[in-house]
């Protein structure tokens, strides 16, 4: 073994997800028009099965499907949905659950991270849906558990306004404990025997009600779906507030950390590791990932040419619509010449300062409304890595080294073409550096993400594990 190969074998291998949404416009409004972009085919099963095959060919961990339950209606508001429609600012949006079984049918190891809301979904019905998909995928589903943040979502499900932020997390905590009881505690490990001679599929006395009566939910149980391979789906979370981080470090097995600069992400990583320990978790058992837009080609010049080509299709009105939904700030209320580096809401100033610190050549620029929108119109409020395989790998490795994260949600401008480019150009370079595996280590989500040899079930330090009903228990 050479010195380089020996060094490479000691490096941490990364988690990589394909980050998408069931919409023609995820984080690149206007790009649905690009001739190589297929996102307008999002209502076709072939679009999803093709994407799944591409990601599995690259041994990507999962396809992570984000979701929202209402339109972004802050920009040029109030409640104005029109500005984002031409460029597709995440409207239209379809149910992320329904393509999963089709994608699972054409793959064997790729996992599926599905976003679902603890505020608006019924816990028993959601538990049954995830258990069914865990069966159909043979243990390859993950739940991105979100509390939802849009006023429009609340109105869509019949509420006059949102439930208060911290209360949504209290609801979520009880919600997850209820689903753990259903998944882990209503069927004993030896309940299903499928004994044809005795005519006994499941054994009486080994299936029980859970009789949950909490502050927010009631459910008698048992879960009507027999135990699946993972039982509890692998848990993703993305809380950023104090309540969100406390919730995530209790329940999450993989946590998404937003951010544009490595210093800010490093601070979040350290805080999350500390909170995880305080919640009785092994800090290293929670995988931490951040989002990044990767545009890669054979050379730096070709990659930047591709980026400039994409910019010809951007829709700034769509970007402003997304920005309003993410921040609650209506940019139409500000003049075109205002410098957001020094004026405007504190959240925007913080965002601009992050860009100024991390994007070379922007120190002296005036951060006008147009400039802010141009910065987020491809890839949203995430970092960017543009260049040859070596250049992009250097950027990503720097992010990991400086932040302590475990990997990335890889976003796109056009799909699935950008994912094809990542598989073709970037992954061989990452493998040569020992940063990404050559092959999946298992065929379930939890085993592939944690890679600790401990099987597909919840780990002992996870709060859901206390609800396990083992075969020798009454």
UniProtKB/TrEMBL annotation:
Pfam families according to UniProt: Bac_luciferase (PF00296)
UniProt domain Luciferase-like: residue ranges: 38-406
GO molecular function, one term: oxidoreductase activity, acting on paired donors, with incorporation or reduction of molecular oxygen
Top-level taxon of the source organism: Eukaryota
Record-stated family: Belongs to the NtaA/SnaA/DszA monooxygenase family.
Protein name: Luciferase-like domain-containing protein
Organism expressing this protein natively: Talaromyces amestolkiae
């Amino acid at each position: 073994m050479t010195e380089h190969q020996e060094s490479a074998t000691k490096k941490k291998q990364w988690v990589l997800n394909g980050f998408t949404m069931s919409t023609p416009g995820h984080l690149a409004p206007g790009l649905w028009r690009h001739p190589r972009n297929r996102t307008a085919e999002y209502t076709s099963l072939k679009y999803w099965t093709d994407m799944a095959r591409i990601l599995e060919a690259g041994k990507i961990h999962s396809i992570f499907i984000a979701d929202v339950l209402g339109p972004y209606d802050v920009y040029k508001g109030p409640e104005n949905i029109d500005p984002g429609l031409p460029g597709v600012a995440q409207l239209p949006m379809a149910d992320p659950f329904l393509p999963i079984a089709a994608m699972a049918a054409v793959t064997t190891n790729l996992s599926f991270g599905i976003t679902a809301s603890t505020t608006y979904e019924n816990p028993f019905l959601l538990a049954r849906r995830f258990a069914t998909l865990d069966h159909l995928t043979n243990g390859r589903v993950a739940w991105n558990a979100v509390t939802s943040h849009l006023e429009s979502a609340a109105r869509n499900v019949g509420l006059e306004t949102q439930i208060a932020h911290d209360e949504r997390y209290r609801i979520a905590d009880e919600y997850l404990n209820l689903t753990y009881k259903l998944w882990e505690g209503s069927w004993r490990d030896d309940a299903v025997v499928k004994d044809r001679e005795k005519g006994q599929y499941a054994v009486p006395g080994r299936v029980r009600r859970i009789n949950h009566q909490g502050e927010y939910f009631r459910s008698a149980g048992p879960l009507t779906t027999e135990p699946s391979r993972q039982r509890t789906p692998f848990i993703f979370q993305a809380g950023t507030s104090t309540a969100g981080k406390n919730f995530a470090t209790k329940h999450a097995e993989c946590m998404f950390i937003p951010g544009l600069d490595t210093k800010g992400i490093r601070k979040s990583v350290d805080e999350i590791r500390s909170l995880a320990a305080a919640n009785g978790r092994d800090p290293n058992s929670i995988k931490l990932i951040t989002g990044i837009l990767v545009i890669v080609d054979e050379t730096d010049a070709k990659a930047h040419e591709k980026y400039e080509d994409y910019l010809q299709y951007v829709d700034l009105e769509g970007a402003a619509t997304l920005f309003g939904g993410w921040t609650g700030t209506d940019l139409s209320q500000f003049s075109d010449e205002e410098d957001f580096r020094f004026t405007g809401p504190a959240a925007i100033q913080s965002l601009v300062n992050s860009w100024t610190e991390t994007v070379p050549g922007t120190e002296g620029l005036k951060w006008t409304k147009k400039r802010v929108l141009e910065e987020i119109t491809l890839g949203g409020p995430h970092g960017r890595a543009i260049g040859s395989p070596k250049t992009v790998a250097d950027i990503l490795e720097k992010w990991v080294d400086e932040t302590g994260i475990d990997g990335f949600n890889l976003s796109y401008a056009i799909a699935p073409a950008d994912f094809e480019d990542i598989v073709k150009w970037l992954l061989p370079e990452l493998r040569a550096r020992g940063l990404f595996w050559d092959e999946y280590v298992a065929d379930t989500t939890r085993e592939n993400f944690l890679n600790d040899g401990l099987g597909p079930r919840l780990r002992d330090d996870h709060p859901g594990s206390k609800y396990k009903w083992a075969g020798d228990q009454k």
